Amino acid sequence: MRTAHSVAAVRNAERELMDRLPEGALMQRAAAGLAAACAGLLREARGRVYGARVVLLVGSGDNGGDALYAGARLARRGAGVCAVLLVPGRTHQGGLGALLGAGGRVADDPFDVLAAADLVLDGITGIGGRGGLRPDAVPVARAARSGSAMVVAVDLPSGVEADSGEVAGEAVRADATVTFGTYKPGLLVDPARERAGALRLVDIGLGPYLPSVPALEALQHADVARLLPVPTGESDKYRRGVVGVVAGSARYPGAAVLAVAGALRGGAGAVRYVGPGVEAVLARFPETLVHEGSPSAAGRVQSWVVGPGLGDGSWATAAVADVLASDVPVLVDADGLRLLDVETLRGRSARAATATTLLTPHAGEAAALLGIPREDVEAGRLDAVRELAARYGATVLLKGSTTLVADPDAGVPVRVNPTGTPWLATAGSGDVLSGLAGSLLATGLPPRDAGSVAAYLHGLAARLAARGAPVAADDVAAWLPEAWRNVVG
Ligand SMILES: NC(=O)C1=CN([C@@H]2O[C@H](COP(=O)(O)OP(=O)(O)OC[C@H]3O[C@@H](n4cnc5c(N)ncnc54)[C@H](OP(=O)(O)O)[C@@H]3O)[C@@H](O)[C@H]2O)[C@@H](O)CC1
Ligand SMILES: Nc1ncnc2c1ncn2[C@@H]1O[C@H](COP(=O)(O)OP(=O)(O)O)[C@@H](O)[C@H]1O
Ligand SMILES: [K+]
Q1: pTM of this prediction?
Q2: Distance CA 107, CA 217 (A)
Q3: Are 256 and 275 in contact (CB under 8 A)?
Q4: Which of 52, 70, 107, 277 could form a disulfide with 253 if both were Cys (CB 3.0 to 4.6 A apart)?
Q5: How far apart are CA 313 and CA 116, in angstroms?
Q6: How many A from CA of 62 to the centre of ligand 1?
Q7: The pLDDT value given to residue 417
Q8: What is the pLDDT of residue 233?
Q9: pLDDT digits (tens, 9 = 90+) for 101-149
Q10: What would the pLDDT profile of 71-84 be if each residue is shown by its tens digit?
Q11: What is the pLDDT of residues 17-66, one digit of tens each?
């Protein structure tokens, strides 16, 4: 599991650890890890550190101090290191002394040295930064990007919000970020994540002092493998779980087919389809159990998926209400999100412990549920998913460039999905996801696990299917077994 902690948690841990260490030891640990990472990148890019041209962008806090001490280490290995001091009167003095002592220098003209650099270290701001880059830092950050140099962010790309992943203005766009002690939420959540490039974590010994419950967690292969259902000798199709899919309409029969395609690959023993798309579903998947009446009359299921391509006719409205009246886990997606009755939804968890709910909106649907503009959801995804889960008393999977899954209990870390590709932004891929997650619910996974495991497999299947080329939703569904094998293999 990859975990991220809030700035407040990092600061507390840092204080506790610093009390036990000599002055400046933590910064030396950070700088040593940073210099080693930069040396590795320089060796990869140009064969050696000796003779490399390194520019340090140095702000007024300890982030700049890290850059200066790392620069001193690189200078001792023969790199030509030059510091651009953004606030000369407030430069970290110890760091500057170390750099000058190691043969580094202060730049006369930042733009000259940036144009010729092999590597730029962004030490403008780290966890102490607030808001986007200040105006004087903007031209320098742009110049760092415009040459051929690799840009390495120290702890965080300057200008991003560490706790939320928001980018309120300009921010550095890094090729890599070397972060200290723990990941920060902003490194894992867009729009900030996109500015961070490849991530490296340097252990500075904070671990024992960080809270055991992080702010954010990202599943890795081993975590997903542990959560995936495995049939045993005792299993039969009913014991493995039956997922009911209520999706599609005369206008969108394809949504029913795609949701069923996802559901068939999610581990349930059978998929029961209810809705107006019976013909289309059977033509493609003859193994589906079908029913044309109301969901509650279709036979037993261990979970429901309701909403993809359902439209908003009277049958659809009644079907959503019918499903929400059940005591099994329900996943509500797409049109279902517009049709659901909020009081019924909130009442579900009070009625029965088994009546859990997983809502799977994209940013537009989340915006409608929250009554705010879509851009606000996209800019502040983490806040939006937490707010939705709290307000609706349900687990929420917010789709998009970084998919997030939040439980209504604020004490439970939000899950961020590390797989996926922008090629997933293709019509119908969300239908596949809802079928898949619903199937995992039917096997007995709680909503947060079902949602995050589904997002992981879905994103991985898309990557495997795409390998750099466009994919259709149907391809993503077809590659799900390969993604599953990749995880357990
Ligand atoms: N915690 C740990 O365990 C360890 C932490 N370490 C390191 O310390 C870093 C934190 O250092 P920090 O607290 O000194 O803050 P930092 O990130 O340098 O920024 C604050 C300065 O920036 C300024 N500033 C603010 N916003 C700005 C903006 N938008 N644009 C431009 N400037 C802006 C602000 O100025 P002011 O508001 O005062 O005018 C202030 O002077 C951390 O990220 C890590 O690198 C490691 O060495 C070891 C272990
Ligand atoms: N920029 C992006 N990067 C990665 N994944 C994305 C991006 N945009 C959308 N996705 C993913 O693609 C899927 C789209 O789902 P959705 O918006 O419901 O589309 P549809 O309704 O057409 O099925 C979701 O899994 C979402 O997380
Ligand atoms: K930085």
Answers
A1: 0.96
A2: 41
A3: yes
A4: 277
A5: 64
A6: 5
A7: 98
A8: 82
A9: 999 999 999 999 999 999 999 999 999 999 999 999 999 999 999 989 9
A10: 999 999 999 999 99
A11: 999 999 999 999 999 999 999 999 999 999 999 999 999 999 999 999 99
DSSP code at position 179: E
Question: Quick check: 237 pLDDT over 90?
Answer: no
Q: What is the residue with the minimal CA distance to atom 20 of ligand 1?
A: 128
3-state secondary structure string, 308-372? CCCCCCHHHHHHHHHHHCCCCCEEEECHHHHHCCHHHHHHHHHHCCCCCEEEECCHHHHHHHHCC
3-state class (DSSP) for residue 185 = helix
Task: Give residue ranges with CB within 6 A of ligand 2.
Answer: 334, 362, 399-401, 403, 420-422, 424-425, 427-431, 433, 458
> Given ligand 1 and candidates 7, 23, 63, which is best to mutate, with the most ligand atoms within 8 Å of its CB?
63
ipTM over 0.90: yes
Q: Which of 251, 180, 227, 234 is nearest to 36 (CA)?
A: 180
The residue with tokens 């395609």 is 261
What ranges in 410-446 are assigned the alpha helix state H? 429-442
Residue 62: is it exposed, middle or buried by C-beta count within 10 angstroms (0-12/13-18/19+)? buried
Annotated ligand binding at 155? The verdict is: yes
The answer to the question of whether 132 is labelled as a binding residue is: yes
378 CB-near residues (< 8 Å, 6+ apart): 191, 363, 400
62 labelled ligand-binding: yes
Domains of the chain from N-terminus onward = 2-218 (3.40.50.10260), 221-488 (3.40.1190.20)
pLDDT for 32: 98
Residue 232 clears pLDDT 90, i.e. is over it? no
Q: Could you identify the atom of ligand 2 that is nearest to the CA of residue 308?
A: 21
